[in-house]
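Question (not urgent): is this output format expected?
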Amino acid sequence: MNAVKLLVLPVLASALVMTGCANRKPTTDSQAGQTPSGATTVNTQGLSEDAALNAQNLAGASAKGVTEANKAFLAKRVVHFDYDSSELSNDDYQTLQAHAQFLMANANSKVALTGHTDERGTREYNMALGERRAKAVESFLITSGVNAGQLEAVSYGKEMPVNPGHDENAWKENRRVEINYEAVPPLLK
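Got this back:
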C-alpha cells in the first residue's frame, strides 16, 4: 500500500503543477488595453512583483511635461562636476529644470539620483562627496517645486566608474550624478 502511495503522490503533484501552469496565459496585444484617459494598461497576471512593476513602468512612460523645447534636456540624464566639488554648473541648470518640470507634471514618477566620484581620494571621502553631489541635485529639484517623495539620493563614490581610465578625461566622466527614472520615465518619441 505504501508503494502505491509513493507512485501516486508524484503523479498527482505533477498534475497539479501542470494545471496551474496551464492557467497562466501569455499576455497578448489584445489583452493590453487603453484606459478611458488613453493610458495603456498592461496585463501583469502571472508575473513576479518586480517584473510587473517594470512592465507597468515601461507602459507608463509619460508624454505629460515633455515639450519639443525640453526633449533634448530630458534625454540628458547625467550632470557632471568639477574636481572635488558638489557645485552645479551653469550648463546643467536647463537639464535639471526640464527634469523638474517633468517630475512636477508626473506625480507618479520617481527618480534615483546616484552620486559618483573619480578614483582619487579615500573610499570614505568619495562616498561623502558622491552624497553631496546627489544632494545638490536633489536640493535643486526640490527648490524648483519637485515633491521630495519622488526623489532618492544615493552615493556610490568611486565604486562605479563609467570610464576605467586613469587620466583627467576618465576622471571628468566619472565625476557625475545620474538621473535614473525608476517609475514613469519621460516619453521622448
